[in-house]
Design brief:
heterodimer, A: mainly alpha, two-stranded antiparallel sheet, 14 helices, 4 strands, 77% helix, B: alpha/beta, Rossmann fold, 6-stranded mixed β-sheet, 17 helices, globular
Chain lengths: 329, 499
């Protein structure tokens, strides 16, 4: 028994060394070292490291939802819009006098319902998720403007403030802690439960999975809803941090989930990747954008650079797919 | 001096395998040469070298005295080589005529000269006597006619050498006859033809020479008329496997009626009724498109039923999704193992355990998958079916076709699944002779173990010899039923073509 476990750990170790995750960890280390040197040490000061950690919370939530969908072979481009809409909605109903807990619950349910609607559009009309969620995203952006009426909505709530800006032991941002905990839970679900396994099966080959008793449609409803749920959490996190909701919301971060997932080895083809990789992807992404700020790159050039990083991630994905299909004669 | 194609000492290695070693033989003009061998014998690699897809490590190709090298597929085409693969290389949205003359479209000042193109395409289509409309988009043609378009494409390129990679695998018998006629025409014109197939009957019908490869090595070359099926199989397998069918150890005792289908109608089926006992192997024969797959998909809950009753274990059932059918004890091994059967990117273990995960759990509230139980079950399946894989964690894509099929069989017949009715849709498609024989015996063993088995195959010889009873279908309904003892290829085929 312990023998097989040991052997399993060994092969897992071997696979890790040659894996993409290892290459990405190396990239992360090189990137950090470069920023540390260029910024003359400012990059690795504790204060900046805490900055990086807190900036990771929102993208971590986005990554979690989108990664699950991508493993199942689907995609959601509306996370930025739905997260922003949910944040806006939360601020609106808090202003209207809703108590905090019910307001949070309703907001999160709203996120899940938006995800469910995405699944409905994708499934009932058999539209590619890419196109369907682009359309729903545009609808939601419209609603954001309608609700906000061009203004930001201020929120002042001590509990939200603690969640958004508070630190545990002075160095650990509370929101990041929650986001990382969610990541661990998802990792366990993916690798240790039947539901998680089914996500991989459906992503690998939906027809074969269906004929073996998994219902790919049902899975897509659950996973789109989950993605909406996490988008809502991302939106709530931003509102908590800024103590206000604006029309831009988390739209600047809308592609971060996908970028982190792809950098972390989750392919658009579905059926592969996992949370450990996604975490490394997230680390690279956050280090990258923070590092650019610290060394004084202008925000516009930062946009260019994040676009290039996404392109780099996509290239890796395509190359990897090619390698797989080529080795099979 | 007539033309010829000669392979001279071709070798090719992939990491870990010597795919071809020192292969030499010659194919003559005006003759059809059969290239035979089990899966993994190196036939496909050799064809890929001929078509310029891959380059050999050593050796060369000589065409009529001229040494050739094909660094790219284009060079092979220019030298007059066309290889027709199972996967069509056509543009589905373009018309037949545009596909026949790719890159050589007649032009006017304003663009493509459609009239001339149509006339030229008609001439070629007429020459082969095919009922194809030159304006039809290729995507709308049947697989067989798409293949004919591919042949015409090779013909109009003035190819001297035309190689076919298992061309009849997706074809019905009538379509196969048309293909053979075309090959006969090409032969009469003095083309050099190479023909790869697993089907023995075809080899004797249309080929003049045979070359046998095994494990990447040349075994022997001979005239087809000087050999027989048994000798060829022996050469391919390396041992005498005797008469496959008469050596089967069959189940003799049937149990009670397990499945009864009454008046089943779907959009592809019309009033299908039959019954099946435990321990019985029921063959479904018919041409491609006769509705055999549709019958089992309807029973399995994968297609919608319009009318009719299904009685399973004495209870009337109608499954709305495969999950319910699986729970009740029905298992389907689908016809396309790579597209519908396996999850190629996942491990052997995950492919085996997928329908029984709910029985492989442990921990708090039985929430977690029991990896050790999964490993044990997979190992048992690997041992029982002698699946050749280096590890239970090997990706399914990397197994050979026969071993992939065994993974699917193991998935549905292991101790954890409660299968009572096992449906096998084309289980031997694209599988080598030795593994086919193994699978036939497995089918009989499943029956002995008390499963009721539905066995679908487009290969007549196989379906009549393995099944105990054969139902023949045509155009969505049943045209007849024969017992194995009475079944011949002729009477089954006659029923399959009956309207």
């Amino acid at each position: 028994m312990s023998g097989t476990t040991q052997k399993r750990t060994l092969t897992a170790l071997k696979r890790f060394i040659v894996s993409k995750t290892a290459a990405m960890i190396l990239l992360f280390i090189l990137l950090s070292a470069a920023f540390a040197i260029i910024s003359k040490g400012i990059f690795i000061k504790p204060k900046n490291l805490v900055n990086i950690l807190s900036s990771m919370a929102i993208s971590a939530f986005l990554t979690e939802g989108v990664a699950l969908l991508m493993i199942s072979g689907k995609l959601d481009l509306s996370t930025g819009a739905s997260g922003t809409l949910c944040g806006m909605f939360l601020a609106y109903i808090l202003r209207a006098g809703f108590p905090l807990i019910p307001a949070l619950v309703v907001t999160i349910v709203l996120g899940a319902v938006i995800g469910f609607i995405n699944a409905l559009v994708v499934n009932s009309m058999d539209i590619a998720p890419f196109i369907a969620t682009l359309a729903t995203s545009s609808v939601m952006t419209g609603f954001i403007y309608l609700i906000a009426n061009k203004k930001t909505i201020d929120v002042s709530n001590p509990v939200l403030k603690y969640y958004g800006k508070g630190m545990l032991f002075d160095y650990v941002p509370v929101s990041a802690l929650v986001a990382f905990a969610a990541m661990v839970v998802i990792g366990i679900i993916l690798h240790k439960t039947e539901f998680g396994r089914n996500i991989y099966l459906v992503g690998g080959n939906p027809t074969a999975a269906m004929l073996a008793g998994v219902n790919p449609k049902k899975m897509s409803y659950i996973l789109f809803s989950t993605c909406g749920f996490f988008s809502a959490l991302a939106g709530i996190t931003l509102v908590s941090r800024l103590q206000s909701a604006s029309i831009t919301g988390i739209s600047a971060q809308r592609f971060q989930g996908i970028t982190a997932a792809v950098l972390g080895g989750i392919s658009f083809g579905g059926g592969s990747g996992g949370m450990a990789g996604a975490f490394v992807g997230l680390l690279i992404l956050s280090t990258f954008s923070n590092g650019l700020t610290v060394i004084g790159v202008s925000p516009h050039w930062q946009n260019v650079a994040s676009g290039l990083l996404l392109l780099f991630a996509l290239t890796l994905d395509v190359l990897n797919e090619k390698r797989i299909t080529n080795t099979v004669a | 001096m007539s033309e010829y194609l000669e392979f001279q000492g071709i070798s090719k290695a992939y990491p870990g395998v010597q795919a071809l070693s020192d292969i030499s033989f010659r194919a003559e003009a005006g003759r059809v040469l059969a290239l035979l061998g089990e899966n993994g014998a190196g036939k496909s690699t050799l064809l890929k070298i001929l078509s310029g897809d891959i380059r050999p490590d050593a050796g060369g190709i000589v065409i009529s005295g001229e040494e050739m090298s094909f660094p790219t597929p284009r060079d092979a085409i220019l030298a007059g080589v066309s290889v027709i693969y199972q996967e069509r290389q056509l543009v589905p949205l373009l018309s037949v005529m545009e596909n026949i003359f790719p890159g050589a479209l007649p032009k006017t000042a304003l663009g493509i000269d459609k009239n001339r193109l149509r006339a030229e395409a008609k001439a070629v289509i007429g020459k082969f006597g095919l009922p194809i409309d030159p304006d039809e988009p290729v995507g709308r043609l049947s697989v067989a006619y798409q293949q004919m378009v591919e042949i015409m494409k090779a013909y109009t390129r003035n190819s001297r050498i035309i190689a076919f990679d298992e061309p009849t695998a997706p074809l019905t018998d009538t379509e196969t006859d048309i293909l053979f006629r075309l090959i006969g025409d090409l032969k009469a014109e003095g083309k050099i033809i190479i023909y790869v197939s697993h089907r023995m009957a075809e080899i004797f019908k249309i080929t003049d020479d045979v070359v046998v490869l095994k494990d990447g090595k040349f075994v022997k070359a001979m005239r087809t008329q000087d050999t027989d099926e048994r000798a060829l199989i022996q050469a391919m397998v390396g041992r005498d496997i005797g008469d496959t069918y008469s050596n089967l150890s069959r189940n003799e005792e049937y149990g009670d009626v397990l499945l009864e289908v009454r008046g089943l109608c779907t959009d592809a089926l019309d009033d299908v009724s039959f019954s099946l006992r435990r321990g019985e192997v029921l063959g479904l024969a018919g041409l491609v498109g006769a509705g055999r797959t549709e019958v089992v998909r309807a029973i399995f809950g994968a297609d919608a039923i319009e009318a009719g009753e299904i009685i399973f274990e004495g209870k009337q059932v109608r499954f709305t999704e495969p999950r319910d059918a699986i729970r009740a004890g029905i298992a389907l091994c689908p016809e396309d193992r790579k597209e519908q059967g396996l999850i190629l990117s996942r491990s052997v273990r995950e492919n085996v355990t997928m329908p029984v995960l709910s029985k492989l759990k442990k921990g708090l509230f039985n929430m977690f998958l029991d990896r050790d139980a999964e490993n044990r079950l997979t190992q048992e399946v690997i041992d029982q079916f002698t699946i050749r894989t280096p590890s239970i964690n090997k990706i399914a894509r990397e197994l050979s076709g026969g071993n992939q099929q065994k993974v699917i069989l193991g998935r549905w017949t292991n101790e954890k699944v409660s299968t009572k009715l096992l449906i096998l849709d084309e289980p031997t498609k694209g599988i080598d002779v030795a593994t086919k024989a193994e699978i036939y015996q497995m089918v009989c063993d499943f029956a002995k173990a008390g499963f009721a088995v539905i066995f679908i195959s487009s290969e007549l010889t196989e379906v009549i010899n393995v099944s105990d009873r054969i139902i023949v279908m045509h155009n969505g309904h049943i045209t007849g039923e024969v017992m194995r003892q009475e079944a011949t290829e002729e009477n089954v085929l006659a029923l399959a073509m009956l309207d």
